[in-house]
Specification:
This protein is α/β, with parallel strands linked by helices and 404 residues long. Helices cover 39% and strands 19% of the residues. It binds (2S,3R,4R)-2,3,4,5-tetrahydroxy-N-oxo-pentanamide (EZ4) and cobalt (II) ion (CO).
Length: 404
């Protein structure tokens, strides 16, 4: 079997996605997600100009060799753009291999280790009561784990809480540039424990509660938040501190027993090495789209298992249904599974990416289709052209640029 053609499909059914489609001379094809939210076309150029010409005519069964060729062979290793490109190719190749083997991907990985995949949903609100209502609504839908994000008094719009009315007509919105938000760590740190105190009152103790600090704190601030949240027994505190300095997580660990999750922006096992090896985290949040495909993710997860670190694939709307499908196969197999995030997709997104994976209340399953079970309707995809789009940026009250 030979790789005959590789297409890069850019589509925007509600938001931008970059999808790789590898077609073989025997008619089998596979698809992979290569989306980097806000920097999509950089991956397209990387694939089209630098990766695809090297792969035409190669044996698609040699997944490991192709991975090494694209990783080591580039000389310039790692980084989100390179690794998303490798991820898209790798995921499509695993799709082809599983189809050739006439198996769902999880069988090729070693078979199912569980019958269903626990997922967590997002709940958010501007006020504590709005958050409480949103959490109860998700519980009602059958979720046993829920991430709760709250507005902070005095701020119109922050991460995880819908954009404010004012932002709709802002200059940034009109020019289609990044929206700017305002942030105060001290106000946030005072408010969040009150949110979780109330949430335990309304939801009880059987529902897992999670919270995402979205990389905004310093280690000692994160340590204090973790300590303040201990009475409410969080499932985890996510992305407390940017992990460019992974050793910073030692400070958090010294002070709190709140479990720590990290890794949605990691690209390789090297990014994850210190925090896993020193047991500074409890959940590793890498996914197939940003951490080197099925090949990269499996390697990270096996390494994590040695250190009692469990898996928790990132699953926002910008991780496409293709990567979601691949992640679910890994989730079903991986011995040290923890949880899977699902923030949900718009109807148009489901239509462009028909998938065998399914949701039943708060649990997911990859399905029994051969391959990873996710496809792309290319004709429909063409109806949703790419539109430049950015993540917001964040500033402190005095204008200092901060982490969003
Ligand atoms: O901000 O995927 O846990 N989920 C998250 C996400 C990220 C986006 C960035 O593209 O933090 O909402
Ligand atoms: Co997050």
């Amino acid at each position: 079997m030979k790789i005959k053609e590789i297409r890069v499909i850019v589509t925007s059914p509600g938001r931008n996605f970059v999808t790789v489609k590898i077609i073989t001379d025997e008619g089998l094809y596979g698809i992979g997600d290569a989306t980097v939210n806000g920097r999509e076309l950089a991956v397209v150029a990387y694939l089209e100009e630098h990766v695809i010409p090297c792969l035409i005519g190669r044996d698609p069964m040699q997944i490991e060799d192709i991975w090494q060729y694209l990783y080591r062979g580039a000389y310039w290793r790692r980084g989100p753009i390179t690794m998303a490109a490798i991820s898209g190719i790798d995921t499509a190749l695993w799709d082809i291999k599983a189809k050739a083997a006439n198996m769902p991907l999880y069988q090729l990985l070693g078979g199912a280790s569980r019958t269903k995949i626990m997922a967590y949903a997002h709940a958010q609100g501007r006020t504590i009561e709005e958050v409480a209502d949103a959490v109860l609504a998700k519980k009602e839908q059958g979720f046993v784990a829920i991430r709760a994000q709250s507005g902070v008094p005095g701020f119109e719009s922050i991460y995880g809480i819908g954009s404010s009315k004012g932002a709709k007509n802002s200059e940034a919105r009109i020019k289609n540039l990044p929206k700017e938000e305002v942030w105060s760590t001290s106000k946030y740190l005072r408010h969040i424990p009150k949110v979780f105190e109330r949430l335990r009152d309304v939801v009880g103790w059987d529902t897992h509660l999670l919270h995402d600090a979205h990389h905004r704190l310093t280690p000692i601030e994160a340590a204090r938040l973790g300590k303040d949240l201990e009475p409410y027994r969080l499932f985890w505190l996510e992305d407390a501190v940017p992990a460019e300095l992974p050793e910073g997580y030692r400070i958090i660990r010294e002070h709190t027993t709140t479990p720590i999750a990290l890794g949605e922006v990691f690209n390789t096992i090297w990014d994850a090495r210190t925090v896993i090896e020193e047991q500074l985290i409890d959940y590793i949040r890498t996914t197939s789209v940003h951490a080197g495909g099925v090949t990269g993710l499996r390697r990270i997860f096996d390494f994590a298992a040695i250190y009692h670190v469990r898996t928790a694939c990132h699953g926002p709307t910008d991780v496409s249904p293709v990567a979601m499908g691949a992640n679910l196969h890994i989730d079903l197999w991986v011995p040290n599974f923890g949880i899977q995030e699902i923030s949900g997709y718009r109807e148009e997104t489901h239509e462009v990416f028909p998938h065998a994976w399914s949701q039943d209340g708060g649990f997911l399953h990859p399905g029994e289709a051969i391959g990873h079970g996710v496809d792309i309707d290319e004709e429909l995809a063409r109806k949703y052209p790419y539109k430049r789009s950015y993540l917001p940026v964040n500033r402190l009250e005095d204008g200092t640029l901060w982490h969003w």
